[in-house]
Amino acid sequence: MRDSLSTVHDAPESISATPMPAHLDPWERRLLDDPNLLADIAFSMGGPFHVMYPARVAQNIREFRAAFERAGVQGTIYYGKKANKAACVARACAEHGAGVDVASIGELTAALAQGVRGGELMVTGPAKSDELLWLAARHDALIAVDDLGELDRLAASASPAMPARVLLRVLPAASASRFGMTGDEIGNALAVFGARASIRLEGFSFHLSGYDAVARAELAGELIARCLHARTLGHPAATVSIGGGFGVDYVPAEAAAAFGERVGRHWFHSGKSFDSYYPYHFAAPGAAMLAQILDHDDIARRLRDNGIRLAIEPGRALLAHAGCTVFRVQGSKTRHAHGRPYRLLTVDGTSLSLSEQWFDSEYLPDPLLWPARPGTPTPTSVGAATCLDSDMLSWRRVPLPRPAEVGDLLIYPNTAGYQMDSNESAFHELPIPPKVVLHDAPNARFRWTRDGS
Questions:
Q1: Which of 162, 263, 318, 369 lies at a CB distance of 3.0 to 4.6 Å from 314, suitable for a disulfide?
Q2: Strand intervals (E) in 173-321
Q3: What is the average pLDDT across 401-411?
């Protein structure tokens, strides 16, 4: 789902877009200020690469945990692993007390390989394979069941000696989602638990698109009531999962507002336009949004009073400010729009490493040009090293601080959440960009390794 930031206008008062400067973490500033590190990594990689800083993942985990503690609520964090494949993120979860939400055998085994224990896994996704259900039950993972057939298959594959731990996924009222069960289906599922000793009902979950804290709080309240009803039937229902959808704040409020007020086709290469964009400014992101949910309608008190644990499944929000993506400029042209010049760059990678194109949209935080040197602000669009006109990393004419030159690096900030590898492909037999992991070293230096090494 994409919430629109903009209404398209066409008055060409300037072909250069307004700036969308990203919030930068201290680690990112250290990376950019180092006179050699980026260039050394780029030389070693020989192509585009992603940078991960798992210490920031650990900080995000601590912030979510602190929100639970302030509300006096028992809470569990499951990292939505689909948001990034990096091994270092699953390792950070294992080291800092977060579980992992997985939806495939590959994700499950990758999490186990990084030290996440089976009981710290939540297995989601619709119509899971028999092999995934069996493996999840063997590892004592919490399994979010999406339909009655899946529940029957799970009951058949699990053992009464070690019952499978189950959440029933509820379809929100008036929702067009393909995920979850209706009220009647939930009632039928409760009857299955009464007849099968190989499954144990531990609670309920839901999937909800968008980033509305109030809607999540209201649905959480409904699931609390479902837990209390299930208990009257003899089920130990003590967990409510509200999924993910915690916003991330990429750019300042004033930048997002200026973009929305002024954007038009005249800002984009070839007059490109998009219907909507991710909301790149978010006033209460991540843990602050969790606090809003817990504060709404006595949710925290109801959880405490009834001994119910709240589970969350953040993906993007757990990766906020934990990574960036680096391309090398390998070509530059001058083009004109409305009689005014702009630069059209070609970099050594593809837009598949900025997966916002998956949503027929564009990643808006401004790329950073390295090395930083004085110069004349230059409207610049960025294309990929493929034979497709549509393969653009930045259709928007970004106001770079100087004309980019061949050999310069373009750093797209805050790309760890979904952007890096959701759409990765070796199209044209180009290598998939590797992930580089930064580690803090003495004297405020970084050491780096390849992910998984």
A1: 318
A2: 199-206, 239-241, 309-312
A3: 98
